[in-house]
Amino acid sequence: MHHRDRRSTMKQRSLLLPALTLCLVATSAAASPEKLRQIVGEEARALNEASASQERIDRVDDDTQKLLGEYRQVTAEAESFKTYNEQLAAQIPSQVEEMGSIEKQLQDVETTQREVLPMMQRMLATLEQFVALDVPFLAEERRRRVANLKEMMDRADVTISEKYRRIVEAYQIEMEYGRTLEAYEGKLGDAEDARAVQFIRVGRVALLYQSLDRKETGYWDTGKNDWVLDDSYRHAFAENLEIAKKIGAPDLLIVPVPAPKEVEQ
Asked: Taking a C-beta distance cutoff of 8 angstroms, is the pair 3, 61 a contact?
């Protein structure tokens, strides 16, 4: 029986006390008043004891229900943890495999670094040599770029990927010089003899110069590895300058081209 039903029963018993008392009075009319009070008192004590017992039972029942609820909650949580642990256990082999893959990748990175660094040093040395032997256009800018790259290679705060990217970028810039037309002002000569002139670079095919007063025109002779004065290119220089600065329409460029040389076997 549920504890609420028992409580209802005890309430009904307490209501029956007056009726029972009347019944006893009616059936015991011949009994003495003292005897009657004793009977009623015993019945009242019995009902009070029963009520007290019922209250204790109700309290125990309440505690039992509370413990039952807590047990069910703990059981549900334990089942949830069990399911979660099973899922984690299923993931462990995959995680171990992934850790092994990451470790291998780290080893590969170390190997790659050992191989890439010397390769980049060789690329940089080749670039430096190429700039030194090439037609001397934008000489200071190009030498400075190589010097900056050499300084960068000794820096620990620059990643290997960034070092490689910048070296490749320098190579791309050098490649671009070979297919562009450019006009710029610069210095011709060294130290105290240097003077400001206008240059025109036609790819890597020709490099011409003209003094700012236009009284002197010349070009770089690859064969002689030196500057050659040749005022016959004065008019051509002016036309090429307009094309280089996008002032004039594209046209046939007249530039000194070295004669082909026979390669000795």
From this structure: yes
| DSSP helix/strand/coil, 205 | coil
Which residue has tokens 């040749």? Answer: 230
Report which of 144, 216, 236, 138 is spatially closest to residue 183, judged by C-alpha positions.
Answer: 138
List, for residues 4-57, the tens digit of each pLDDT value. Answer: 554 555 444 444 445 445 444 444 445 567 777 777 777 777 777 777 777 888
pTM of structure: 0.57
Helix extents (H) in 134-156: 139-153
- Provide the residue ranges of all domains of the chain, joining segments of one domain with +: 3-85, 181-258
- 230-263: per-residue pLDDT in tens? 999 999 999 888 888 888 777 677 777 766 666 5
By residue count, the chain amounts to: 265
* Both structure tokens of 200: 């025109």
Question: What strands lie across the sheet with 181-188, from one edge to the other?
Answer: 181-188, 195-202, 206-211, 217-221, 226-229
Task: Count how many Cα atoms sit within 13 Å of the Cα of residue 104 in the half-sphere of its side chain.
Answer: 6
Residues with Cβ within 8 Å of 131's Cβ and at least 6 positions away in sequence, in order, are 139, 142, 143, 146, 174
